[in-house]
UniProtKB/TrEMBL annotation:
<feature type="transmembrane region" description="Helical">
    <location>
        <begin position="231"/>
        <end position="251"/>
    </location>
</feature>
<feature type="transmembrane region" description="Helical">
    <location>
        <begin position="12"/>
        <end position="37"/>
    </location>
</feature>
<feature type="domain" description="Cytochrome c">
    <location>
        <begin position="372"/>
        <end position="451"/>
    </location>
</feature>
<keyword id="KW-0349">Heme</keyword>
<feature type="transmembrane region" description="Helical">
    <location>
        <begin position="143"/>
        <end position="163"/>
    </location>
</feature>
<feature type="transmembrane region" description="Helical">
    <location>
        <begin position="58"/>
        <end position="82"/>
    </location>
</feature>
<feature type="transmembrane region" description="Helical">
    <location>
        <begin position="183"/>
        <end position="210"/>
    </location>
</feature>
<dbReference type="InterPro" id="IPR009056">
    <property type="entry name" value="Cyt_c-like_dom"/>
</dbReference>
<keyword id="KW-1133">Transmembrane helix</keyword>
<protein>
    <submittedName>
        <fullName>C-type cytochrome</fullName>
    </submittedName>
</protein>
<keyword id="KW-0479">Metal-binding</keyword>
<dbReference type="Pfam" id="PF13442">
    <property type="entry name" value="Cytochrome_CBB3"/>
</dbReference>
<keyword id="KW-0408">Iron</keyword>
<keyword id="KW-0812">Transmembrane</keyword>
<dbReference type="InterPro" id="IPR036909">
    <property type="entry name" value="Cyt_c-like_dom_sf"/>
</dbReference>
<feature type="transmembrane region" description="Helical">
    <location>
        <begin position="280"/>
        <end position="302"/>
    </location>
</feature>
<keyword id="KW-0472">Membrane</keyword>
Length: 484
């Protein structure tokens, strides 16, 4: 509660921005940086070893696409994750920086090395015109592939820690934080789904660079057959490994988080569709298997347009994995350590006894009174609810209470206050209310006013900083003054 709230009401406080930037980054980084770079390096090595300049030229042309995308959108979204989390979730990113200081330090060194290597590798490709230069160039590509994977490997440790810190909860050591129970299975899952999607991308791009100019031109067909046959092997092996590591990962997730899976995968409105989602997941696996098996038979058995199906399904699968991982850990932002509203687990009982307003910095009032009840309720909402909810925008608190009490009936304030204080018991993805009874009543008063006069809530970027005066010191008695 030591940070002013940068808040965007129509975007559920800003979490949607974090989610969109992070998802776009993953959808670029995994298939292209982690998946495609090692495959393209391998293609360059194979071409050099077997004297196939046509394969080398194809690898270069595909690398051009990967280079442009990863060094622009990929790099910008990576920086965007830091910027958006610092603005909208400073409490969480601050704690993660303290726990993973050396991990983040190593990740930045690896990231800088990755950027230098990709520029060096791509821009020096055509200059590698002798066997010795080519061998050196291939080693640069190998180093790039390793650095791309290491970047993901370091970040995955943080993502696993946020769901299940493991032994760190007792030891508070960096090594235990890095080697959390979800680290190995999640790293394996992400590695092989990246290779699988990277292989499909290389396969798809090959179709555009191997068009026959005439019926007598057999070189494009020969080159395409070479790529399709080998990428099919990568797809099939990676699919099996993705399934095995995914099963292992699911088995290590805490049972309390698994209970959130139906909401995490589809949202509350579509919880009943959980069975259909599992069916679609099965079809996704079958499509990748069919593409891989089809490619083993003939490079022309799978038409170019058909590759769009696993491409979109891979994006869908990886996107839903990110959504599910983020939501399933609720009510925590860091498992068993920090709730999603930024309250530490160890501070909860203290705040419920003392009150949030008394110990918050950027509020209008320290104590709830009849005169300031609504203003206090607004501050309570900002402190306890705004990380996930809005007032009138996405995931609106008004919509939630309207679904419970109806829009054409009066809302019982006493019942609402009781619900707020006990909601975590029936909705396990909600954190406990971290305030006193008076603060819960103030929050209800604010929501009731919003119902009568809906208006968006503005963050510090619009309203400026507001700091309440410290509570006045108790007046000294005449006897105490005489002693002084």
């Amino acid at each position: 509660m030591d940070f002013p709230s940068f808040y965007m009401d129509h975007l559920a406080g800003g979490r949607l921005i974090i989610g969109l930037i992070a998802s776009l980054h993953v959808l670029i980084n995994h298939p292209l940086a982690v998946g495609a770079y090692p495959l393209l390096t391998w293609m360059e090595w194979w071409a050099h070893k077997n004297n196939r300049p046509d394969i080398d030229r194809l690898a270069y042309r595909i690398t051009f696409i990967v280079f442009i995308v990863t060094t622009t959108v990929g790099a910008m979204t990576g920086v965007g994750i830091w910027l958006s989390t610092s603005l909208f979730a400073p409490f969480a990113i601050g704690s993660l920086l303290r726990v993973f200081f050396w991990g983040w330090f190593m990740e930045w060194l690896v990231f800088i090395s990755e950027v230098v290597l990709i520029c060096w590798w791509f821009l020096s490709w055509k200059k590698a015109d002798t066997p010795e230069k080519k061998r050196k160039h291939i080693r640069i590509g190998l180093a790039l592939s390793i650095m791309s994977w290491l970047t993901m490997a370091l970040i995955v440790a943080v993502l696993g820690f946020m769901m299940k810190p493991g032994e760190w909860s007792q030891t508070r050591t960096f090594l235990d934080a890095m080697t959390n129970p979800l680290y190995a299975p999640q790293l394996g899952f992400r590695t092989f789904i990246a290779l699988m999607m990277g292989a499909v991308f290389v396969w798809f791009a090959t179709f555009f660079f191997t068009r026959q100019k005439s019926g007598l031109d057999h070189e494009p067909r020969r080159l395409r057959s070479w790529v399709v046959y080998r990428m099919s092997h990568v797809v099939l092996v990676s699919l099996l490994a993705t399934y095995l590591f995914g099963t292992w990962y699911w088995g290590r997730i805490p049972e309390t988080m698994k209970a959130n899976s139906s909401v995490a995968l589809l949202t509350q409105e579509f919880m009943s569709w959980h069975g259909q989602f599992q069916t679609l997941l099965g079809w996704t696996i079958l499509v990748f298997a069919a593409i891989g098996l089809g490619g083993l038979g003939s490079s022309f058995l799978i038409p170019r347009w058909a590759l769009l199906i696993p491409s979109f399904m891979g994006i869908w699968l990886l996107g839903h994995f990110e959504r599910a991982r983020e939501f399933m850990r609720k009510p925590w932002v860091i498992g068993e350590y920090m709730y999603s509203n930024g309250v530490h687990k160890d501070e909860l009982a203290f705040l419920q006894s003392e009150g949030m307003l008394k110990h918050a910095t950027y509020v209008k009032h320290r104590e709830v009174t009849a005169a300031n009840k609504v203003e206090c309720g607004q501050d309570v909402f900002m402190l306890a609810c705004s990380r996930c909810h809005s007032t009138t925008g996405l995931n609106s608190v008004l919509d939630k209470f309207s679904a419970m009490y109806g829009t054409d009936k009066s809302w019982d304030s006493a019942g609402m206050a009781l619900f707020i204080k006990g909601m975590h018991q029936t909705r396990t993805f909600m954190p406990p209310f971290p305030g006193t009874d008076q603060e819960a009543e103030a929050l209800v008063a604010y929501i009731q006013q919003l119902r009568q006069k809906p208006e968006p809530l503005h963050g510090v970027q619009t309203t400026g900083l507001t700091v309440a005066l410290p509570a006045p010191a108790p007046l000294k008695t005449a006897e105490a003054q005489a002693r002084n």
